[in-house]
Design a protein that fits this description.
With 363 residues, the protein is α+β, with helices and mostly antiparallel strands. It contains twelve helices and 17 strands. The strands form five sheets. The protein has a five-stranded antiparallel β-sheet with strand order 7-8-12-10-11. Helix 3 packs antiparallel against helix 5. The chain is globular, with a radius of gyration of 23 Å.
Length: 363
């Protein structure tokens, strides 16, 4: 490989890390790429350098097979497409892998086809919901990456007080769509946590003291099994599998819909309190005191220590599941010098108030 080609290839691969995705052209199977920096013309599929970058021509062919088998409602993306980078992106940069291709199934039937092709060829694959996993390889791969982005349904059913939730969402999206109905579901506590991994891993939410873990509020799963069979799993149809999915992560198949119990949702009380590192002992003592003495299931806190710029930032997210908290509920925290305030607000507003975005791609 000459140095000019090596530069061109590395330039494209490093673009996502510099947040300049907008200048990468969108390609399809027949696109000719003309790069003025390289003064070369090549097709993304025909040029022999591309499989070498991707590292596995067999997997590349499987990506093509998937592309040819699925309907127009699903798509396959490759290295030079900005949508590819959106598919493989994770909250933690250490969890992002450069896969040979990313696949966005748009229907359950297409996902079943994809799984049959993957199973037939025994190719490694990864499944990503919101991409909030901090564990490398848990929702990423170097081969076929499946993004559940297009499964983005939120359907409230007032008759039986259930909500159908797709795995391609983050909890902010779910809460926003349910807010007009004055209902919610037991989901994530902070911004940008994905639905799929959270619900398949257990799920501790702001209402867990009242209703249990998130898995305790799931009534049924729509599941594509590893052999590409589509089934509805509940306590009557497949009781053992229903039990296994409650904490079994993605080991039993790919969930395309979670039917959850709808919970009443009023305005809530709470917010984020920020503290100087010098208050660490006072905060630790207050957190332990709250844990031991709080008897109100509507009251919760989330205590977070974050390293920023060589220093440690401390924040307490306080939550009360009603418009006003009883007197003295959080006094043990507000009596310590802090920035921020607790107030009546929407449930969505409180979730979005968490400062987790400042640590994205720092792990």
């Amino acid at each position: 490989m000459n140095l000019l080609w090596k530069f061109c290839i590395e330039f494209v691969i490093l673009l996502p890390l510099t947040n300049t995705l907008s200048i990468i052209p969108t390609l399809n199977r027949n696109t000719i790429y003309s790069n003025s920096l390289c003064n070369q013309n090549f097709t993304i599929f025909d040029n022999p350098l591309i499989p070498r970058i991707l590292g596995n021509t067999d997997t590349l062919q499987i990506c093509h097979d998937i592309e040819n088998a699925i309907s127009y409602e699903s798509q396959v993306f490759y290295l030079y497409d900005p949508r590819y980078y959106n598919d493989i992106h994770h909250y933690s940069i250490s969890s992002t892998n450069f896969s040979v291709c990313s696949v966005e199934p748009g229907t359950t039937n297409d996902l079943a086809i994809i799984m049959k092709i993957i199973g037939k060829n025994r190719v490694p694959f990864g499944i990503k919901s919101g991409g909030h996993s901090l564990n490398p390889g848990f929702s990423s791969t170097k081969d076929v990456h499946i993004s559940m982005l297009r499964f983005s349904q939120v359907n409230y059913n007032p008759t039986d007080q259930t909500v159908d939730v797709g795995p391609g969402l983050v909890w902010n999206d779910v809460y926003k769509q349910l807010q007009p109905f004055n209902v919610s579901v037991l989901g994530g506590r902070v911004s940008n946590v994905g639905v799929g991994g959270f619900l398949l891993g257990g799920g501790y939410g702001w209402k867990s003291n009242q209703y249990g873990l998130s898995i305790d509020t799931i009534l049924e799963y729509e599941l594509v099994t590893p052999n590409g069979t589509i089934i509805n799993v509940n306590n009557k149809t497949y009781p053992d599998l229903f039990f296994g999915l409650k904490g079994g992560l993605n080991n039993f198949g790919i969930v395309t819909n979670f039917k959850m119990r709808a919970l009443p949702q009023t305005l809530v009380y709470g917010g984020v309190l920020l503290y100087d590192f010098l208050e660490i002992n006072n905060i630790l003592n207050a957190a332990v005191n709250f844990q031991h003495n709080n008897q109100d299931p509507k009251a919760q806190i989330l205590c977070d220590f974050t390293s920023l710029g060589g220093s440690v930032a401390i924040n307490i997210i306080a939550f009360y599941d009603a418009p006003i908290a009883p007197p003295n509920t959080f006094d043990i925290f507000t009596s310590i010098g802090h920035l921020g305030k607790l107030q009546t607000r929407s449930f969505l507003s409180l979730v979005q108030a968490s400062p987790v975005v400042i640590t994205e791609n720092m792990r």
